[in-house]
Amino acid sequence: MNNNFAIIMAGGIGSRFWPMSQETHPKQFLDVLGIGKTLIQMTHERLQKLVPDSQIYVVTNAKYADLVKAQIGLPDGQILTEPMRKNTAACIAYASHKIYNLNPNANLIVAPSDHLIMKEDRFVDIVNVALKKAADGEHLVTLGIKPSRPDTGYGYIQFEDGRDILMGEVRKVRQFTEKPNRELAEIFLKSGDYYWNSGIFIWKAATIIESLQKFKPKLNELFTTKGNDYNTSAEQDFIDDAFYKCEDISIDFAVLENAKNVFVVLANFGWSDLGTWGSLYTHLETDVEGNAVIGNKVHLFESENCIVNIPNGKMAVLQGLNDYIVVEAHDILMVVKKDHEQRIKGYLNEVKKKDPDYFKLK
Questions:
Q1: Cys bridge to 141: 130, 210, 236, 244, which one at CB 3.0-4.6 A?
Q2: Structural domains in the chain?
């Protein structure tokens, strides 16, 4: 474990989880399951089974650094702050270069902060398989999840030889497809050789740096120190300058869709990215009508298969709703059809345009 490091990516705002997830207090810092732990706390605890706590780093927006420290207690030196959001390629480039500067033999486990994993022991086993594959420095490894529905909100990984699939196997990746339309997602689901891209990656620091240099040299060079910038008092100014100049692009588009040395471990550890209200629904208890309710004063009549999240102590009476999402948070009430949840981010942007003064107060 001495060469194992973890990078927790915690800079997003979780806009598809609005209105509970707000820019001032995003999804990763919320107890969305009502179990007394936030998503980033659960992620941190999970990675402690694979990595010494002193080798776990969080990359987050500068405005969330205090939240990270309060919730998982990492020292300032392990909380890496971005001056602005520039997607996952910049985030990974920053942390990879910093850790490589500390340990050129570092193995990296890169994980989002807001995923739910129900079978943590199985997760540890799968990551160890991926670490073994990545250890030679020649492979980039991702974890793939068998799709349960034709979801258009996920990226899909096609892997070679889709026959006789065993969980925990390593397969060579044939191609990535980012967020296909419904028709294509249904084809992927039926084919059997497409898995969801979990967004969890395992590779050596040296390997991903080499890959960034090959496919995105301008971005990589911005994070390549010309002197003694990393792990010194000069680091933040150096990083701020790199972020202002670098491209806004995901690691999937920057590297994984272009590289020929990408492999996937077929995983089964009860994964959900909790990216939408619908993905949360599958992990909540439901009543006999299929309603998942959070809130102690919610009363449903003639309603089925709804997700309702209302603050404790606030009464809500709902009648005649089927397959709806009803959420009240931060003085905002949202009622949206479940099958339209991918539109929530767009609705939020439209509402901000129409009522910008209201959001200045939030």
A1: 130
A2: 4-275 (3.90.550.10), 278-360 (no CATH)
